[in-house]
Amino acid sequence: MSLPIRWTTLPTRFSLLSLCFLGLALKINCFPADGLSTLPEDEFSVYQQARSETANLLNVRDPQARPTSRNLTPDHQITNELLFINRPKSIEHRQDLMSNWQDPLTREERRAQRIEAAKDYSPWQLESVRSQLENELRSANYHVFMAFDSNIGLKPKYEIKLKEIQAQIFKGLSAIFHPNPPSRLNRLINIASRDKSLQENNAPLVLNILHGFEKSCTLLQDKEAFASQKVNVEALSLIYLMNDLFVELLAGLDQKGLIGDELIRDILNKRNGGRWIFNWLIGRHPPTRHIPDTYFIFDLKSSMKESPSTRLIHELLEQLDPESWRNIERLYLDCQIATFASLPDISNLGKEFRILTAPGAFHDLDEHTIQTLYQVFLKKVIHGIFPESTQPLKPTSIDMQENLLVRAKTLNDMLRFIVQHHVEPSSLSQHYMAQIRQMAEFPKIEALEKVVMLYSESLRVTYLQLARKLLQLPDRKSDAFKTHGLGVIQKNFLADIWQRERQSIFKIDTFSEVRDERGKSFLLPNMPMSNDLNLNIESLGLGTHLPEVINILVQKIQTIHQGLQKTPGHTNSELQRLASLLEI
């Protein structure tokens, strides 16, 4: 079987290829995820609409894709989700927990169990596992099938090509669910190599499906293939539907021990740089102007790995290498830049950000020159977050506050990315991190870092408390349970709800001696971050006149703190109060 096409071999006529990192000669896998912020506004809106429409299908079926939620009544599904949110903590009324709830194993233990189970599959069990996988993917499979058969405006010759690819994809899926010849099920495999044989049997089938998806994505982004000479929502929707199906297929095969780790790593990292995962992620959690949604995410990687809403792909995330993680973070930031391009500074600084963070962009420059470029950019970002103003703060409308906070978070995320992935890893990091700390605006950045962490933590505590209050309700069929329970689930925060490893990018674990530009030595002190929700404004070190964005966040933190301190009242009003703190 021929090897699947790699994106770097594609002809240059395809629309997004010309946008890949400004034409740098890099080995980049182009996909809908690439270059969103470089698209004209009208083109980006087409991608955005396609992802939004297909995301509705993804989010509707996602609970049914989770083994613990299948075949449960609506009130039991709500209970199950709330339990999953609360899983690290002891919960009152444990006798009310559903019989299928068990304390979670570590991921390593679960993976070991799957491998052992695959070794011991009998022919009947193997048939049952494959049937279960087919049922789990039935909805995603159906939506892709229907999208292939819809009229997406292709020229006749390209429509024929797409039909051929469609046949290739569904033939591969059928071969996974129903191996041919059927006698394979009746053949006992040597126990010592059974799991390997199962994985080897599925590997070429998975690669063939991947090959079909790649060819489809290439064709569906070629403007020449369309009678209208432009890509449309229907074509891009098919790409995103295929993306979601393939991610769910990988997750399902992995969960059942039917695919090898090496193949997963190759697909997710070497062949795709995390783009399958990213496109799935923006279906579940697109950048939004909803402030709690935006600020719940303090660190994207830990949020993805620990959020209940992404648990379908948690095992796949363990296979991502550092470069793919970096790429996912960069792509998500690029999507933020595209989404919020109308806000001041986002578009211009976003263009610079893409150039500065492109892999291999400065391979001909020495490290000092590169770090100097980063320092110049960071100063621009900091000035964007804290613009100079001699005017006193005036009350701002809710919409203005929303725009201000979203803009500040996006710019701060750019700053964090540059520092984490380009300054700290540098051989000259000690010198240039010291330069950052010597910037006149550094105390404001440090204070912003602190209040963003604290606001994120405040939201997490409130989210957990609301989930626990719901689980304590005696009547799981009550309107209060259904209304607020559905609200918690449907809000679907991307949050590292189970494990918080929040750390400032500017925190120093020990005293470090460095030299300034004049060669004089000085000490950089440790700067611990408090987890106390009762924020002491003086601890920010900015006096009483806070920058506007910090002032608004401080007010939000204080509102949540005061709300959590109130004496619990009537159950309904208590639930409503907690929900209002989360703005749901």
In short:
The chain is mainly α and 584 residues long. Helices cover 58% and strands 1% of the residues.
Regions with pLDDT < 50 over 5+ consecutive residues?
1-30, 64-70, 88-104, 183-195, 508-531
Describe the largest sheet.
2 strands, antiparallel
Average pLDDT over all residues = 79
The helicity comes to: 55-70%
Oligomer: single chain
Return the structural class. mainly alpha
What is the H/E string? HHHHHHHHHHHHHHHHHHHHEEHH
Please state roughly what percent of the residues sit in beta strands, choosing from under 5%, 5-15%, 15-25%, 25-35%, 35-45% or over 45%: under 5%
Task: Please give the count of helices.
Answer: 22
The overall strand count is 2
Textual characterization of the structure:
- By secondary structure, the protein is mostly helical.
- Among the domains are: 7-292, no CATH class; 441-491 and 530-584.
- The chain is 58% helix and 1% strand.
- The protein has 22 helices and two strands.
- It has a two-stranded antiparallel ribbon.
- The longest helix has 30 residues, at 442-471.
- The radius of gyration is 25 Å and the shape is globular.
- The protein starts with 40 loop residues before the first helix and ends with a helix.
